[in-house]
Amino acid sequence: MNDFFLTNLPPFFPDLLQTMDKFYAVSSTNPAFIPSPGFQPTKALTRKSKLRILYVTFLRYPNTGGLAHYINHVKDGFSELEHHVDVLSPLNMSKEEIEVHIPAQASKAKEFMNKRYGLISEKVIKNTSFLTVFSAFLERQNLKDYDIIHAQDLFAAYLLTHLNQKLHKPIFFTPHGHFTKSRIDFHKMEKGSLEEAYFTEIERVGIRGAFRIITISDSFYTRLKELGASDQQLRTVHTGVKPPLLRTSYNKATNKLIITCIARLGPRKGHEFFLQALSHLKQFEGFIEVWIVGDGVMRKHLEKVRSDLDLSFVTFFGKRHDIFDILQQSHIYVLPTLNDNLPLSIIEAMHAKQAIITCECGGIPEIITNRHSGIICKPGNVTELKQAIEELICNDEYRETIANQAFKFATTHLTVDAMITKIQAVYEEWWKANTEKENECDE
User: Which among 196, 217, 294, 438 has the fewest CB atoms less than 10 Å away?
Assistant: First the structure.
């Protein structure tokens, strides 16, 4: 990207500028951006047996995390079917773009916003500078060469919707969370703020521009429809994993009954309620061990809670990479989450034949049937957590039964192969849509 091109990048996308003008009641001459919905081919398509597929994320893939695992699985899955698959993220940009152009764009946006409104929003400035530079990067990547482009977050969906007004490609969108709503719910963004208006507009545009929205659970539907999604756009494909083979025998670290919890140590995961529930189960202290795996902002606080509650049988493992090995030494898996979509750790625990205790959040009830393949509690309910843990400690037969039921469901429905098959079926809907349009023209 040369200096001339960088200089000519606008500080804000026109639709986002219009949104801010409306919020601050500033007269605006910017025309409304109404993206063409879905997929509108400019010419007849030739059906291909092997596709060129592009996955795009605004996040820093290939950093670790649930999103990275998801992208890796779909990339590898479609590559094994001999399709050509690429992934683009900000980490594909040059060092100059990241370290020079984005800060320069931020300065430009800050000056523009301060002059126009007399104030600035650091969150908006940070986002718009990244959006404009990454959009310019994507525009230079020959996106026209791909048959299918699949956005993996709302920002990628937004940018691809803008670029697709010229490309006319089938854009697919998989949201992995509710960005604006989640931040408002957890007090990271104020209700009625400029940030809410700005980021909601990004969500609306990305949704309107998608041919199909492939969600990881049905629980996304309500919020997506509030933002303008139609029933025709929505499809659910539950996340699948490819776990290592279960070992028939294992040298366990202890003869005690192991209870594991694997999750980021953050406010949403409910660890404190888990520890409180365990404080009512000290009669099992010599019989159980509790392994809390993961790291995060709440670690010091949670370690203090463990100390205050005198839970000597609880160990914090920190961040680990041998998750499946840990699960295979375990008997009970607990995820006391307060707010979630479709946690990867639960799917991994199902494949590891764990008796699962978790909470009624997001898509969890879509893969865990209460009292059949796990026990589902109300989020934040210490009493229900305590009772569920005690029941599984005391009832070996029931513990084994629900673990086996979870394993059976996971190995049938929550594998990478099952996920790829279902996503491929959704991709193929664009051929059908094109064929229907051709038939309409013939008539």
Answer: 438
